[in-house]
């Protein structure tokens, strides 16, 4: 006699996978803000696609290509990829090796979470400092006067300087996010066992 659908002996895919979450609870208020802002960058990818379609149409139908389409799509894509790293931190969805993490108990996992967050904080601070060195060169002439670095193309947009400034902002935000994660892992409850541990 077949079992009703809700009494099936095999778990469905919703029971196997962990519930989706917008941001990692330990990411705090900053994680919440990052996941909300991410929608704007998702729209940026769509805008980049539209610009490419327009460029193809203008180039091959009217034989009148633009001078701004390539730089615009490159800028929008680059900004999205840069922000993607910060988005992954807020959601705890970055790539990592979990060989040791998966075999230890909750207390050791919390220690590892703290140590990993501290290591990532130090790395983020280092990259933020390196980004600042790039930003200084991209924003100021050797005599100290303000000037945004441009692409040197026919359109000559300031996109290189803007990308470097954005990278600095993201690295600073990522450093703050790892600092918040460190404190919240230290004072928070022990990590729960995941479904694949049972």
TrEMBL record:
Subcellular location: Cell inner membrane
Gene Ontology BP annotations: C4-dicarboxylate transport
Transmembrane annotation, as ranges: 40-62, 68-90, 111-135, 165-186
Cited Pfam families: DctQ
One term under GO cellular component: plasma membrane
Single GO MF annotation: transmembrane transporter activity
Keyword DNA damage: no
InterPro entries for this protein: DctQ, TRAP_DctQ
Bilayer topology annotation: Multi-pass membrane protein
Keyword annotations from UniProtKB, A to Z: Cell inner membrane, Cell membrane, Membrane, Transmembrane, Transmembrane helix, Transport
Chain ranges of the Tripartite ATP-independent periplasmic transporters DctQ component domain: 49-174
Record's function text: Part of the tripartite ATP-independent periplasmic (TRAP) transport system.
Family in the record: Belongs to the TRAP transporter small permease family.
Assembly, per entry: The complex comprises the extracytoplasmic solute receptor protein and the two transmembrane proteins.
PANTHER family in the cross-refs: 2,3-DIKETO-L-GULONATE TRAP TRANSPORTER SMALL PERMEASE PROTEIN YIAM
Name of the protein in its database record: TRAP transporter small permease protein
